[in-house]
Amino acid sequence: MDHTTVLKNLGFTDAELTGGTHVVTSPIDGAEVAKVHETTLADVPAIIAKSQAAFKAWRTLPAPRRGELVRLLGEELRTSKDALGALVTLEAGKITSEGLGEVQEMIDICDFAVGQSRQLYGLTIASERPGHKMSETWHPMGPCGVISAFNFPVAVWSWNTALALICGNPVIWKPSEKTPLTAMACAKILERAIARFGADAPDDLHQLLIGGADIGAALVESKDVPIVSATGSTRMGSIVGPKVAARWGRSILELGGNNAMIVAPSADLEMAVRGIVFSAVGTAGQRCTSLRRLIVHKSIKSELVEKLKAAYSSLSVGDPRNKNTLVGPLIDEDALSAMQNALENAIAEGGTVHGGEPVTQGVPAGAYAAPALVEMPSQSDTVKTETFVPILYVMEYDTLDEAIAMQNDVPQGLSSCIFTLNMREAETFLSATGSDCGIANVNIGPSGAEIGGAFGGEKETGGGRESGSDAWKGYMRRQTSTVNYSAKLPLAQGVSFDI
Amino acid sequence: MDHTTVLKNLGFTDAELTGGTHVVTSPIDGAEVAKVHETTLADVPAIIAKSQAAFKAWRTLPAPRRGELVRLLGEELRTSKDALGALVTLEAGKITSEGLGEVQEMIDICDFAVGQSRQLYGLTIASERPGHKMSETWHPMGPCGVISAFNFPVAVWSWNTALALICGNPVIWKPSEKTPLTAMACAKILERAIARFGADAPDDLHQLLIGGADIGAALVESKDVPIVSATGSTRMGSIVGPKVAARWGRSILELGGNNAMIVAPSADLEMAVRGIVFSAVGTAGQRCTSLRRLIVHKSIKSELVEKLKAAYSSLSVGDPRNKNTLVGPLIDEDALSAMQNALENAIAEGGTVHGGEPVTQGVPAGAYAAPALVEMPSQSDTVKTETFVPILYVMEYDTLDEAIAMQNDVPQGLSSCIFTLNMREAETFLSATGSDCGIANVNIGPSGAEIGGAFGGEKETGGGRESGSDAWKGYMRRQTSTVNYSAKLPLAQGVSFDI
Amino acid sequence: MDHTTVLKNLGFTDAELTGGTHVVTSPIDGAEVAKVHETTLADVPAIIAKSQAAFKAWRTLPAPRRGELVRLLGEELRTSKDALGALVTLEAGKITSEGLGEVQEMIDICDFAVGQSRQLYGLTIASERPGHKMSETWHPMGPCGVISAFNFPVAVWSWNTALALICGNPVIWKPSEKTPLTAMACAKILERAIARFGADAPDDLHQLLIGGADIGAALVESKDVPIVSATGSTRMGSIVGPKVAARWGRSILELGGNNAMIVAPSADLEMAVRGIVFSAVGTAGQRCTSLRRLIVHKSIKSELVEKLKAAYSSLSVGDPRNKNTLVGPLIDEDALSAMQNALENAIAEGGTVHGGEPVTQGVPAGAYAAPALVEMPSQSDTVKTETFVPILYVMEYDTLDEAIAMQNDVPQGLSSCIFTLNMREAETFLSATGSDCGIANVNIGPSGAEIGGAFGGEKETGGGRESGSDAWKGYMRRQTSTVNYSAKLPLAQGVSFDI
Amino acid sequence: MDHTTVLKNLGFTDAELTGGTHVVTSPIDGAEVAKVHETTLADVPAIIAKSQAAFKAWRTLPAPRRGELVRLLGEELRTSKDALGALVTLEAGKITSEGLGEVQEMIDICDFAVGQSRQLYGLTIASERPGHKMSETWHPMGPCGVISAFNFPVAVWSWNTALALICGNPVIWKPSEKTPLTAMACAKILERAIARFGADAPDDLHQLLIGGADIGAALVESKDVPIVSATGSTRMGSIVGPKVAARWGRSILELGGNNAMIVAPSADLEMAVRGIVFSAVGTAGQRCTSLRRLIVHKSIKSELVEKLKAAYSSLSVGDPRNKNTLVGPLIDEDALSAMQNALENAIAEGGTVHGGEPVTQGVPAGAYAAPALVEMPSQSDTVKTETFVPILYVMEYDTLDEAIAMQNDVPQGLSSCIFTLNMREAETFLSATGSDCGIANVNIGPSGAEIGGAFGGEKETGGGRESGSDAWKGYMRRQTSTVNYSAKLPLAQGVSFDI
């Protein structure tokens, strides 16, 4: 499908794609795809006010009814899967399989959220006082701001939106300025679901903010947006977190990761190689969960590096729309520069670089690079810095304790894993003294989470959780209630106070 | 018991009580009780480092074993209940029954936490991939800073400490500078429990920071204190929250409340009067959950105000150690001034004040005041401002919707209640369109929570939760794990990536 | 739609509808609809063996993948909603709205189960031993036998099947001998979903047993059917329960109810009348949750009875396919006889009967009756006996305690309710000293449960739970595991045993 | 301590120990210890009636208050630990460490239950109807009959009683006729706790039935005992289960086990040997979780058997009060005969027996035997039969699938384990296709469960669960409630029914 067809299939009109001031280019070839209309700063207050109004209505709909809207969203996503996947490829540069996988994740979270809409369980609690009962109930919070990044231009939105909607919250979405089209496509898909849902969905249940950081800042700073879910760089999060805290909001931060894999002597090396390559070079190393550090037992390091070099050399870099391509473009030239700088720094710190060179032959006009494998003598500053490109640093270890200490010795705490067949090593890695990350896997790479678990990480990753488990609680307010249905008024803790 | 006996019974030595630079006075009579040693700013880094070292050991102890320490703490608190309650009275000015009630709450939370130590439940989760299993486990976080206020000088510590300890975290406690002695007493009681517990409790599991705001700031700003639980004013919280966020910590904020009661036409008025008086004047109006606003249906307002005036006139104000006293001193002269200012402002806004005058006759030399009942024509700025004294503003309403809107129209969101016998009113108040507070009660006042529920509030109350329900999760880090025990490596969402 | 069209739309072939030995008649007019093929007793062992084989395969599919089959089933049910609803009307005699409502309930449980398939949560549990971890996981059980009754010929199957399937269990369904066609239709709908699902659904995942009680007995007695979920009469359950227990199986029993409503002085009477009439005469009184006993405060009894008499007199009895009909036929002539007998007994016990007479004019040739309202002087034996027809016994009470005692004084414990606006009464009814039923409602009738809650009752209702909450655990086996990943072997409870 | 002192310390009077008709002997030497008074069949109805009366009062006490009684019970057990442990040794023949361990387990469950008393959590559930709320609450059930066996004469009671009491249920305990004294001692200890608890504990909260099977049958058959928790043989359970089912009660069955360990090639053999010996010969093989079958990989079978033979030969058999004794007496001569018969049968089936002979030298006059290790060519009928003595059958396997199939191929399903360092083997054993038991461990033996997990098993083990996790739900009834606080009456599933 060429991109005109893709956009048409998704319901874009010419007016939407032209005449705006915001230029959209494809990382595949750097070509301009559209000029879309920007939201101005002046528009934001009215948008937030409309969201507040929508909230007043939406929160009164029963949650299972709200779930029905998300079910319809899931149906619409199924219908639009190919087109939306193709647009992800076009706008974010992902290979086709990954573009489709991202849409599948949207569908999965919708299915999950539909069931969840009948399971927003609070608790009934036995009171210590006769004739009293306690309970805990979860209520809608209000407008939920979603700030998302270019690398998962649609899935992150769906994680937040599916849950926010069933929880009774309208959504205001500020997508990456690099990927407004996928955002507009999602908005259209949701609008179709809303149209089928019927009249009890209020207007403005979902609104878009197209534009740059200033627009996002307006969202972050508004007291009328009680929840801000922001996915992106640690730098961005370091601004958002304190700002939201300062105006008593709640933030759900999903920031950077500097994700490692420990490869133990007993590891199934063939499986490890597959896991490493997918994690390190998938999405051209531009996942927050991309594998960036490999901590290999010294007894197998040479063997593993050789296998990896062989695997890396076979990877086809190029147009992500080609069936055989495994490594598409970086998002822009800045990313390519950052990659080259990091490699230079690594060399300066004693590293040996395999691959990593820019690719210009046989590829379109975008920013392409061969993934890099870098053997490092130790975990240097460059290694500890997240560079959002396909560089994998390889280091060796002697004892498991040492490996875990290396794994933990970075500022971020998103994802981590170990490859081992030894159950003592596996369990130690997962224990209180093991990985300090929000995600810790055994015999699978750090990336590719299922939606059933809570997703997120510790330390500079920001502490937020999205998707499965009880992540929905992040979108609701908790109410603890004691009801006295007796004709007496005892005090807790046996306090007496007789007037 | 005179205070010398109380202090002796709690194990204080002369050296601890004299020779320091931090002067402790009793609000009962303003007299100096002790001069305790202050922690200096220079001491703080070493204290935090010791806590980190304690963490390394403590986290490896099984949680049920950690629970045993808290069980012993509960036993020691039972033994010291009278003495510690008396010290609370001495140092914070609470009446005896409330001093003892506060210690009982400590005992309750210990009992609760012991059971919880075997119930730090994570989840096992069915994976979407064959030969895979998912789980979610909760692990210790690291040192937990506790900042507490004068008005619950011991209970708030126990809530945090009992949970922090079973969760595997050492505690560093910065009590109010007005109540260091109760803090030192708690530390001693815990030390006795630790001594009985035995050698596997590491040194420095619990440390005190005695001093002012600068010491607290050092705790708040340290990257090595991943959790800061701070109870106090909204002003304090507005500083702590963003600072902790800025260095990627987690804060649990329990800040101010401007708590209201709606009294509906069907209310059991006799019960309401008792509930109002206890909530509004108990602890001399110095609870975060004290009742500050009364929203009464116009049909019963006169009757209720008359009853309240009668009840207020019978309240004995004075030395909290006297058996008949129901209203003890304010914490200091500043509080008394703030009270008088607020009353003047209320009058200027059209209010009619009943009571509220300073009391100097028949009381010791502290800051005493008669509780004030203030009829207000509307919910003015003064009413919307939390003044931490026994002032109760009374306003009338016509429809329940109006009453709920008034209840919600303040910046804080801690506690709230309705007195009604009508189930439609009661349930509406508890629903998504009802109270916006963390606590919402029916036919009991806003104060006096049981430890089984999560305690805390929304908006400027800070959003934190302590005590019961799953508040323990605030003291742990969540780990989502996927374990592949198959010999294959499928990707989630059906992504294919064949190298 | 005539029934030929309905059957055709559902995919029935002539061969399925003719040539069998099992005659299907419609309660609407007693006419023969089909002659379907019966399962013979000799067939049962092979059917169970095939189910066991299917189990071996199905249990290895990840639960979220199993959920996908249930999602497809939900889609197919949406497609066939009108036709299946019409067949329910034809075969069970329900009015159209109720027939469709029953299918909607099937759709709801599918949506619910899809979400649940990622939430079959077990627990991770902190062990008391260092280097150990505990967890609790839920595993598939094996073939699940479903025995259902004529009155919910399809919904009960869907509740059980949706959960059984996601839990990893094949299903063997023995429907009521009066409603084999709806069962065959459901089997066809599921087959269509399976066909779309693809090759990893094993053969024989769902099988039907068409026939009488002997076939059901073979299922109940088989050691190879670990779960038997049986819905029907208490008499049936009294046989099934001990038989399944005797061969170490698990039974989920949903048996009779003798459901009452208490109407308190403060009740919204207009609402109560609507609730009573729907609960008592809906499905012609043939729901397990039908309202059978009305316990009215003496102060309002006359008024309420008058209103009910008026409402009853306006009810149209007749062909359930007519738009205006609210009361369709009884299932057969036996039911009509039972009704007349019960009314005679009630009269003999002092009752006053309003309505209740057989209706033969203006209706087809089935067993029709006007719903009966019977004023009773006390709760006699006849009142305490569940007669599965539209008889509502009305009694009066003085105090709430007395009313609750009457409510509880029957052998069954399924559903119950109170109509009151008084919160003390409402909460007392729901408390430990209130209703002893599995379902206790306030201001809604006893019937019409949502699928989000656990459905079932106590005492002779059998104790089983289906549908929402953690009812899914009834379909799985629980495994408690302790994993020692340390190099030591401590014993629990500090036992020492040194060899 | 001699037994007179032990009994005296526990508060027994001479009148209690003499003059009855029920002779108590010690398995240590067969000597008569006491003649206690028996409960007659005629007494039982009144006992049950008193329990019902106690229930009416006890259920109204708040659960946290009920928890306080269990806390006091825990304190009393701590005080009596040595004496009660010694009595367990005397009456059941356990070695001292195991007697004390059993009391420690009682203390643990009390601590657990105290916390649980504030966590009898039901759910609040979002309703699909506007103005409605759903919830699920757990209420007390009524008298709980506890039937326990000689081998855990006190712990099983405490598991049930601690939970039953906090859940609001009185207890009627029928201990093994072989161990009435420990039961009477527990009753006394609980009485002391009740005396401290105060007046709101009703009379007859706990009652004993001393006597034989007929007394137990009366309990089992009474409609007024809604819960029967029975621990003992499969034969006993096969009677109890159907009887309780027939009168609509709930049974919690903890019956026999035929527990196996798989020892894989990678196992830590030294650890395995320790685990095997403790599991197989601890409590003289008379635990329901005793290890009875060893399934060893053929590559290590010879080595492991040699090690076991060496370990077995070092075990001291004799008076359990001696510090060095590891194997005390069997419960009686019948057990010794059963052991000799089983060994003969095993030999007839091709087995090779090591040890197993009666021991008469250097031991008191009880029934002593050397533990037996029996190498079996295959899993014969004798192996598949649980003989409640210290016989361990050893078999070999080739593939893990084969080992798991052998593990599962017995009628019982209580406990199981694998020793392996290979994570794939460990996880497979714990998966849906692994062990079919209620308990499945890795690198620890099948016995010695912690109280934090749910304890119990599948198949002929009876399906009951006690102790931790949500086992408390077995002692309560579940109530699903929908409350309509709106002024409308919508029906679920969109049904319309307009009168």
Largest sheet entry of chain A: 7 strands, mixed
Coarse morphology of chain A: globular
In the CATH classification, which architecture of the largest domain in chain A applies? 3-Layer(aba) Sandwich
Question: Major sheet of chain A: order of its strands?
Answer: 12-15-16-11-10-18-19
The average pLDDT of chain A is 96
Say what oligomer this is. Answer: homotetramer
Question: Would you state the CATH class of the largest domain in chain A?
Answer: Alpha Beta
Overall structural class of chain A, as computed from helix and strand content, comes to: alpha/beta
Radius of gyration of chain A: 24 Å
Into which percent range does the helicity of residues of chain A fall? 25-40%
What distance lies between the first and last C-alpha atoms of chain A, to the nearest angstrom?
80 Å
CATH topology of the largest domain in chain A: Aldehyde Dehydrogenase, Chain A, domain 1
Count of DSSP H/I helices of chain A: 16
Point out poorly predicted stretches of chain A.
none
User: How many distinct domains of chain A?
Assistant: 2
Largest interface by Cβ-Cβ < 8 Å:
A-B, 95 and 95 residues
Beta content of chain A: 15-25%
Give the number of DSSP strands of chain A: 23
CATH homologous superfamily name of the largest domain in chain A?
A: Aldehyde Dehydrogenase, Chain A, domain 1
Keywords (chains A, B, C, D): NAD, Oxidoreductase
Enzyme class (chains A, B, C, D): oxidoreductase
Domain Aldehyde dehydrogenase (chains A, B, C, D): 21-480
InterPro entries (chains A, B, C, D): Ald_DH/histidinol_DH, Ald_DH_C, Ald_DH_CS_GLU, Ald_DH_N, Aldehyde_DH_dom, ALDH7A1-like
